[in-house]
Specification:
The chain is built from nine helices and 14 strands. By secondary structure, the chain is α+β, with helices and mostly antiparallel strands. The two termini are 39 Å apart.
């Protein structure tokens, strides 16, 4: 599936219990879908909603034992009944996002299709750990039903990032889109220190280290625990692989910040705004400050 062209749209988030982190209902203009978002502690209230008695697809989110983002994707004829089974069956999750249709447009075949497509996207992106052990193929749909399901999926993929879920978008596609944007093209940035050699690009919601970058195999004695754990997680998932005494990135990977990316590469604390530089040697900090100065002159 190719990403739809970005266009202005309106998304409504209704705070069902009046608090920003409470039970939320998400709707999008000109879309028949609806998302129910609830923390695990709010599940009792969520299960009382009529949406949970309908067919749909859902995502459970949480963390692995070492703090990495983790998810589980599922589908159900009756969302509430299936999600209740995960209270005792799965310990990792802290939040559920359940999608259904406001016009009964989802049936068993379409929710199975959406589940399979989401799992395929998460596996390809390899940005989050996935709790599912099976990756089913999408069930066969006729041409019209397949088009409807893909449209529903595309709208879901617009909503997920607003909820802090970037598991379904590959870092490669995001870096490519940003770098070819004629309005705000992204420069390729470089890191070369402490034996690490990396290339990267800034993206809208993070910082992408590009495939083929080399991280130092050794770690400093003062490395933060979260940095050590992130390196271990990336090695376990095959994002980092041993090569020539170092660790090579086997795919593009999106980090939350340039400093986290730099720290993973060098095996210790690093200021990403000064560690990453363009081809002329200007630091990311200098580039960002120059962009801000240019913007202020235009205002």
């Amino acid at each position: 599936m190719t990403s739809p062209q970005a266009r202005p749209t309106s998304i409504r988030i209704f705070l069902a219990d009046g608090t920003p982190e409470g039970l939320r209902i998400v709707e999008k203009s000109n879309w028949t879908g609806r998302a129910v978002v609830a923390n695990r502690s709010q599940l009792e209230g969520a299960l009382k909603r009529s949406e949970m008695a309908q067919p749909g697809v859902y995502v459970l989110t949480g963390q692995t034992d070492d703090g990495a983002a983790k998810l589980y994707v599922g589908e159900a004829d009756v969302l509430g009944e299936r999600i209740k089974q995960h209270v005792a069956g799965k310990e990792f999750w802290t939040r559920v996002i359940a999608f259904t249709s406001t016009n009964e447009g989802l049936n068993k075949a379409s929710v199975r299709y959406l589940e399979a497509r989401l799992l395929g996207l998460a596996k390809t992106a390899n940005q989050w750990a996935v709790d599912n052990t099976a990756y089913p193929s999408p069930p066969p749909l006729n041409e019209a039903d397949s088009a409807d399901a893909e449209w529903f999926l595309a709208e879901m993929l617009v909503i997920f990032p607003l909820l802090g879920i970037d598991a379904f978008e590959s870092a490669s596609s995001q870096a490519k889109e940003i770098s070819t944007d004629p309005v705000t093209p992204s420069l390729t940035l470089y890191l070369d220190e402490r034996g690490a050699k990396g290339t990267a690009r800034e993206v809208t919601d993070g910082f992408v280290v590009l495939k083929g970058s080399f991280a130092r195999a050794e770690e400093t004695a003062s490395i933060h625990n979260y940095m050590r754990e992130q390196r271990q997680t990336l090695k376990a998932r095959g994002v980092l692989a041993p090569q020539d005494g170092a660790l090579v990135f086997t795919q593009d990977f999106r980090f939350s910040s340039p400093s986290t990316a730099a720290g993973v590469l060098v095996g210790g604390a690093s200021n990403g705004r000064t560690a990453w530089k363009d081809a002329s040697g200007k630091t990311l900090k200098a580039l960002q400050e120059a962009r801000l100065e240019k913007l202020e002159k235009c205002l």
